[in-house]
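Final report, Chapter 2: Outcomes

The project's central promise was a pipeline that accepts a single protein chain and returns its three-dimensional structure in a standardized token representation, suitable for archiving and comparison. That pipeline is now operational. To close this chapter, we reproduce one record exactly as it appears in the project archive, with the input sequence first and the structure output second.
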Amino acid sequence: MLDLFSEEAPWSEPLAEGAVILRRRARDEANTLMALVTEIAAKNPFYHRITPGGHRMSVAMTNCGDFGWSTDSRGYQYSERDSMTGHRWPGMPELFRQMATICAAEAGFTHFTPDACLINRYEPGAKLTLHQDKDEQDLTQPIVSVSLGLPAVFQFGGFERGDATQRVLLEHGDIVVWGGPSRLCYHGILPLKPGLHPLTGAFRYNLTFRRAFR
């Protein structure tokens, strides 16, 4: 496992055509990012959403930005307000927006400006089954995903759920960007293993930036 406190500089690791891992890219900003996550969660707490099929998600979620993503008995949707509270989602911090835009450009996707940030909190055993991100209007826009805290195994596959997947370890500060030919690839997170991280404790946090509407 990589040493989280090493001085080794960030580097890029190709994942697939149109997909790249920016290793340790968010490491230097991690403390500030987590402080901002705490502020967002104070306004809109983490909650385990219920899927249209009636299942409780193992991942707890909140959102920030002009729009937020959620799931309930009606399906999956982006909206300006949290359907549970009726309140608007907390605004997206400028650091979040800048990081997503800059990292998208580093991966070859210029002019990306996110209007939604999904923030997932994983506890031991939590997972995200293989899925496609396809609720956004403009699928030419990439996904930018920031990992903070405990390491997790990321699965990245093809265009069918049953396609073979790559399994790569994502560690604290890693950022994955995918779009273009890889935009609709299935992906997920294997069950999180127990651990303790000096910044996030027993949790992993994932910030996922999208452009929900044109």
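Archive annotation: The mean pLDDT is 94.
This record, like all others produced under the grant, will remain available to the consortium after the project formally closes.
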